[in-house]
Amino acid sequence: MIGKLTGRLDYRAADHVLIDVRGVGYIVYCSDRTMAALPGVGEAVSIYTDMVVREDLMQLYGFLSLIEKEWHRLLCSVQGVGAKVSLAILSALGPDGVSRSIALGDWGAVKAAKGVGPKTAQRIVLDLKDKAPGVMAMGGTVTEAMDGPNLDVVELSEPAPAPKRMAKPASGSAAASAGALSALSNLGYGPSEAASAVAEAAANDPEAGEANLIRAALKLLAPKG
To answer: Looking at domain 4-64+142-154, which CATH architecture does it have?
Structure first.
């Protein structure tokens, strides 16, 4: 399996790119958000990938972060959700938005993605709600994971020139949410209620740091009355 590609971006289309790795071109399909964040043609690129292999099909899907890749994997595990629908959801919400929507049970936000009906959106939230805390917790370790060894990497034989612009693989909001989630778990809150509170706090203030998220989430978790 190919888990990551590092090479030169040779071609861009509406929904996929061609990446040259040691003279071999790999076609990689991506969400709209990932496409917008990739560098220009001729520049160096590094992207996580997920390969789908069937009798009549072999395709690569690309992601800028491990969190986005994990959500794609989980979304595709839901009945009736294929790669195309998963990428549509990630295009509409981004990985952080998917985390918040599922943690909050907000199937209406999921339904806003192209090609997603209300029944499918509700099924996604129901099936994946308990998995949201685990994916959100990845936010604090994505940077470390990217620096570690990767056995499924296809790289250039020579160092590629530094890209002029590359998106950050892990957003600050993801790391802040992961830290806040960990803190609430250490205080004894259950994974689901902690994830819901952190997701709601992050939705109310997308720029909030970890400390502010913790304070806001604690207020939401405080007994009412």
So the answer is: Beta Barrel (2.40)
